[in-house]
Amino acid sequence: MPPRPVDVPALVSAAREGKPRAVARLISLVEDAHPALREVMAALAPHTGTAYVIGITGSPGVGKSTSTNALVAAFRARGKRVGILAVDPSSPFSGGALLGDRVRMQDHALDPEVYIRSMASRGHLGGLSWTTPQAIRVLDAAGCEVVLVETVGVGQSEVEIAGLADTTIVLLAPGMGDGIQAAKAGILEIGDVFVVNKADRDGADATVRDLRHMISLGDRTEPGLWRPPVVKTVAARGEGVADVMEALDKHQGWLDSSGTLQQRRLKRAADEIEAIALAALRARMGDLRAGHGLDDHAAAVVAGQIDPYAAADDIVAQLR
Amino acid sequence: MPPRPVDVPALVSAAREGKPRAVARLISLVEDAHPALREVMAALAPHTGTAYVIGITGSPGVGKSTSTNALVAAFRARGKRVGILAVDPSSPFSGGALLGDRVRMQDHALDPEVYIRSMASRGHLGGLSWTTPQAIRVLDAAGCEVVLVETVGVGQSEVEIAGLADTTIVLLAPGMGDGIQAAKAGILEIGDVFVVNKADRDGADATVRDLRHMISLGDRTEPGLWRPPVVKTVAARGEGVADVMEALDKHQGWLDSSGTLQQRRLKRAADEIEAIALAALRARMGDLRAGHGLDDHAAAVVAGQIDPYAAADDIVAQLR
């Protein structure tokens, strides 16, 4: 069945006006790798680049949804339009409709200035690195001044999220992630702001101390480099959220003044371009294979008429 | 330090005469991804395509080296020149010199008609799929009528070996791999000949029965398809080796008469070409990134002047 045709200009225009259904449809096009996606991205491009992208990662059980919820409330109190992408790296399914994740984000589900979307990262086109930046682009163009990308810290996803975000918040809970564990997991390198949630539990101060100690040992304490703060919260009661907001403000200021924001965004764009280019090349290689270009070369290699390098050169030339 | 220059015509000519040092040096060039490799492969191409490639895989402890040893003796008794590649997928190091693996293959280490080489599969250019086919090509051109590729059945390596070999032998031992375990591990699909080694141990007959039962449930029992035999051996005493040789002869005959040999070799060549082409494209992408081609595009994307798809198109065009 061919994909449903899309009136891209109308859809983009509706999304720019903030119409939730249009935003939802555009993110679905991203998830489905719809043929209209190129046209969509071309139409969105001039309207992107203003959103402040915050990544939130942490192990299961540290209170990511609750913390995200609390941050959304804080940004809403400042009058910001907020987009939320909840990326589940373990799920092979996409999570469904915008405004649909009412259970997890019930405080904001009916707020027209909040866009909530669950996404699977393991789509047919690969991980976080492919679909998430495009979904961010959609929310950015839809006028979201803040985009929160929440993902479970499993495997590589937390490193990937740090590559996508302007600021990465690493959430921990007492006893779950002390400093050495954090160092082992590699999160000391990716966190811009560390938040020890559930700080009313035993061991919270020890976790904070451990983290600060490990951070002090890292190379991020050189002059001019950002020294990640460690903030305590009890997100379920809203405690410490103002401190997190202050840390985010400071980090955003540092990103701007140090030129790091532009550096990170350039790197992110380069990664995205590279991923798309490689996917395009792979797809063309697949077309060649489905046709007879590669088969003929394989036959010549088997017959000893050419070597595989010369055959590969020809194939690369045909990709033009 | 630039790589040592190579006199490719002299080396290829010496390897074709069967000089072990020349063969060893060519395989080292493969492992090192030496710049002269393209020239080497072009010079070897007309002399390849005659070797019968046998893959041998199985879990640690089933007796792979002993079985390989016994098969080498059997092929030597037929007067065949034999090449052996022992691929260790877990080792980051290459195993060293031809004729060097005397402990494992001591029966044949001094036989001038036997070439033994240990290889690491996890080189800087990736797995089995990259270096092993080229090493096979070297041994093929050096006049080896039989090339045995031995690898531990861990993770994907046994599936990869099946993609490289004309005939794949799956080794099991009693109690280590019953039929259901084999089915789970996916080896029922890849084995052309199943060998239950250490058949003097308890449970050998049960393992054979289980395997035969599982094979009878598979789709390989349709008319015209190869039905993998299950053979018992005690390789350490040479028992059953003649039966394995008979099974190999039958499979080789079937490969020929059914056209499967050509099909497998075509697919193998196509895979190899594709891997080389993708590696070349990636390398060129890296060059672009190291230069400024990608950076300029990234800046334009960040500024909203173009979208990442259009940027990727330009990058792909520049790869020509």
What would you note in describing this structure?
The structure is a homodimer of 320-residue chains. By secondary structure, chain A is α/β, with parallel strands linked by helices. Chain A has 2 domains: 46-258, Rossmann fold, CATH 3.40.50.300; 270-318, no CATH class. Chain A contains 13 helices and 7 strands. Chain A has helices spanning 8-16, 20-32, 37-44, 64-77, 128-141, 157-164, 179-185, 187-190, 204-217, 241-258, 260-290, 293-302, 308-318; strands at 52-58, 82-88, 114-120, 146-152, 167-172, 193-196, 230-232. Chain A has a 7-stranded parallel sheet with strand order 3-2-4-1-5-6-7, with helices on both faces. In chain A, helix 9 (204-217) links the parallel strand 6 (193-196) and strand 7. In chain A, helix 2 runs antiparallel to helix 5, helix 5 packs parallel to helix 6 (157-164) and helix 12 (293-302) packs antiparallel against helix 13 (308-318). The interface between A and B is large, with 52 and 52 residues.
**Approximate shape of chain A:** globular
* Helix content bin of chain A: 40-55%
CATH class of the largest domain in chain A: Alpha Beta
Number of domains of chain A: 2
| H and E order of chain A | HHHEHEEHEHEHHEHEHHHH
Which class best fits the helix and strand makeup of chain A? Answer: alpha/beta
> Taking Cα atoms only, what radius of gyration of chain A do you get, to the nearest Å?
22 Å
Low-confidence stretches of chain A: 91-104, 123-127
Beta fraction of the residues of chain A? 5-15%
* Strand order within the widest beta sheet of chain A: 3-2-4-1-5-6-7
Report on the biggest sheet of chain A: 7 strands, parallel
Span of the ends, CA to CA of chain A:
29 Å
How many strands of chain A?
Answer: 7
Write the CATH homologous superfamily of the largest domain in chain A: P-loop containing nucleotide triphosphate hydrolases
